[in-house]
């Protein structure tokens, strides 16, 4: 059973048909949100067409939730699919990470920095 299966209702800030939204317990930045599949599905590629449609809508909802209290300058949206990609919880979840000017010295390359020396091009 996944650690996401035990999340209490009071931690859920939004619930849809296939997913729910919580604030990340270990946020990368202020306002970091997770969109988590209600069912234990491995990764993005395990989602149905209907689930993928709802996920797109919930990414927009997550952005609205973040912007109620925060004023980010950008976003990273990420899904780790497989151990080689850094997935540690084998239950689909999508990170919506607000980014702020100055939160790192040189953000150029964004997620390309997940592999050493690939963010600098």
CATH architecture: 2-Layer Sandwich
Helix and strand succession? EEEHEE
The class by helix and strand makeup works out as alpha+beta
Counting DSSP E segments of at least 2 residues, the number of strands comes to 5
Q: Tally the structural domains.
A: 1
Total number of helices = 1
Under CATH at level 1, the class stands as: Alpha Beta
Radius of gyration: 15 Å
Helix content: 10-25%
Instruction: Output the CATH topology.
Output: HIT family, subunit A
The CATH homologous superfamily name equals: HIT-like
Low-pLDDT residue spans: none
Mean pLDDT: 95
The percent range for strand residues is: 15-25%
Our measurement of the CA-to-CA distance between the termini, rounded to an integer number of angstroms, reads: 41 Å
Shape: globular
Order of strands across the widest beta sheet? 1-2-3-5-4
Structure report:
Strands 1-2-3-5-4 form a five-stranded antiparallel β-sheet, with helices on one face. It starts with 13 loop residues before the first strand and ends in a 22-residue tail after the last strand. The chain is 17% helix and 20% strand. The protein has one domain: HIT family, subunit A. It has 121 residues and is of the alpha+beta class. The model has no long low-confidence stretch (mean pLDDT 95). The protein contains one helix and five strands, in the order βββαββ.
Key phrases:
five-stranded antiparallel beta sheet, 121 residues, HIT family, subunit A, 1 helix, alpha+beta
List the helices and strands and how they pair.
Layout lengths: L13 E2 L3 E5 L9 E5 L11 H21 L4 E5 L14 E7 L22
Antiparallel strand pairs: 1-2, 2-3, 3-5, 4-5
């Amino acid at each position: 059973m996944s650690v996401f299966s035990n999340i209490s209702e009071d931690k859920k800030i939004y619930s849809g048909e296939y997913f729910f939204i919580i604030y990340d317990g270990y946020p990368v930045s202020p306002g970091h949100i997770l969109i988590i599949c209600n069912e234990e599905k491995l990764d993005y590629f395990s989602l149905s067409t209907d689930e993928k449609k709802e996920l797109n809508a919930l990414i927009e909802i997550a952005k609205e939730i973040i912007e109620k209290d925060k004023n980010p300058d950008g976003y990273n949206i990420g899904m780790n699919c497989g151990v080689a990609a850094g997935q540690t919880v084998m239950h689909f979840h999508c990170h919506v990470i607000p980014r702020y000017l100055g939160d790192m010295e040189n953000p150029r390359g964004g997620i390309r920095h997940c592999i050493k020396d690939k963010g600098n091009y």
